[in-house]
């Protein structure tokens, strides 16, 4: 029959499954076919909103500037190619999984590495928030009646992702592989079908919003000169959301099967090629179908009920134009897009815990983030990420357009610092080699220098164009996270310094003074006295506090009646406090003899059920909490397990069972001396 402890573990086992032995960690390593959907779902899914973000900005000036969309898409694809090539150098040079953080730490120093870490941690939180919010948008595009439950749906999806990842990397990888591949296949089929329909048939390719007209915002009605350049750069910066998540593979190299670096580099190349093809295809179809999408739906003239009816996403309008409204193809694309956007957050659920573990190992984050859970995953990191993502979703009401403004600052900050760090890395390595190997490193350095130059320019563009639209929140959050990590590191450093053994660490205390706290003459008190006497202290004091004269007189009478061979010391407490008089008594002992060790024995009985604790005043807990801060004082808890606290298996075991001594069910040597 299961014990109480087994029943308490039941909810955990239902969510996580059976625990995994530590020696099976190698079995969680991923082949490329699973690594691709796990680590690349974020950049692959970005085609669902990257094109949309470009159109949102361009339509601010009306339909006249939509001709810029293909040129901006080409620029984004070229940037994606450069970044992918740059990160292929990173996975070969730093296969330990630190990614940009490790590159910055080894080539720029602590300051740059912590800036990268703060940027990546922020980016991972935003990845979850944006991906889930955008996935919710696509669900609502298929089922508009769910619009009023947007936030609840998004929060529920984050909880699902956290639970799936807590079950382990391999299990979540299998769960996420199928939707990712279904999405890729669906988008590629849609692109090919759309191109055939547009170029080789007489069938029309017209979006639902093609008939709408857009009235330019007053401030964008007469763009020219510097204002026009700034406007175009803002649209380009919005399109750069297509690059989010590219760095996740560099951070997750340890999760690949050997040869780790080569498999990671191959997966990175596959991800870049597929993402570029899908983004370019969706953008082209959106322009062919004359898709209109505005930040505020009521800016679209001809859109009836814009106040109450949700605007269809760009990907929904394109699939509608290609496959037809209400068709199987339309619902397939919507379902696959919603799934992959939700699962794209899995990139962060893999990257954030790994980075948190590295930071914890370097003592910049709490040690708990370096601890693996039952399923050999960094459970605390997963839960922390889910919590912050939920906060962002609730704060921004699961609005993907508002959340995206905060998204890419951290991405390109880590890109930029990491790429310039790689330039330094190759410069240092080239001094140690000659010939063909040196030429290979020179090519890698050129690639990283090109990547660093371009991402630096893009980062400046993003900061300038996105700052007032929400990016300032991330720019403020990153220094805060940086300072927090410095404080954590300072704490761990100080603790380590104070714990170094000193020259007198083996010096014994001059005397040991045992103090047994007494409330009543009962079994826990007698057991504590017996244990205290068994330690052979130099002095033994039985101590009670007088908070009620009648109770104290009854206690003294019982003390004499049981003929206890230890004098009872009574402390007066006119204000009916217990903790303060005990603390003052202990401090007086220490003041009179600073080298004397005081050992306080605290009797405590253990109840059978957690809710029974409410019926007791927990004075032992409060005393321990205060005494632990007193120098030269040790606290020894003497538990007395009540009948209801025994496990069934112990009561059925014949003879003396473990724990019987402290329950008073077996004789001990200390008891004979009373």
From TrEMBL:
Its main location: membrane. It comes from Klenkia marina. This is Amino acid/polyamine/organocation transporter, APC superfamily (TC 2.A.3). Gene3D superfamilies: Amino acid/polyamine transporter I. One of its GO terms (molecular function) is transmembrane transporter activity. Residues 644-653, 660-674 have a biased composition (Basic and acidic residues). Keywords: Membrane, Transmembrane, Transmembrane helix. Pfam families: AA_permease_2. It comes from the Bacteria. It is found in: Membrane. InterPro entries: AA/rel_permease1, APC_K+_Transporter. One of its GO terms (cellular component) is membrane. It is a multi-pass membrane protein. Residues 644-674 are annotated as: Disordered. The chain crosses the membrane at residues 54-87, 111-131, 151-169, 181-200, 220-246, 267-289, 331-355, 376-398, 404-423, 444-464, 470-485.
